[in-house]
Specification:
This protein is 40% helix and 19% strand. By secondary structure, the protein is α+β, with helices and mostly antiparallel strands. Strands 2-3-1-4 form a 4-stranded antiparallel sheet.
Amino acid sequence: MTIPGARNLDSLDARIILALDKDPEASALALSRILGVARNTVHARLSRLERSGALRSFSRRLDPAALGYGLMAFLSLAISQTRAGSVENGLEGIPEVIEVHATTGDADLMAKVVARDTADLYRITNQILEIEGIQRTSTAISVLELMPPRYDGLLNRLSEQESKPQG
């Protein structure tokens, strides 16, 4: 997935994000002291990262199980291509659909869904099937998250690569 119009992060951006991962409540002043850069620089960088969409909302860090949604599933969706807009709008109207990607291969869309249990997943799947333009679904239940989304390795690599002297 690419962010339209997004510019690449640099070493300082990576260092700021890694520092925020260690202390999400750190102020711009605290970050400037940790990183050895001016507070205004940190503040401007954070503002730019938020405006560009590089930094997403804090709620994306939330574990759905904390809200009572302990079951996660991935739904492959086949859709009528002429109804893509109504499908997207319909999926946005279902709170348990927490992520949707347009994909290549057999499925047109891949939806990440949370549910309270299998009966709730059945309800949600039927709600999705009622959306005009959805032709069929295929469901895979996640039995265990082996590795949650992670970006620290990429950020560390960027931070280290750009901080090495060029020569």
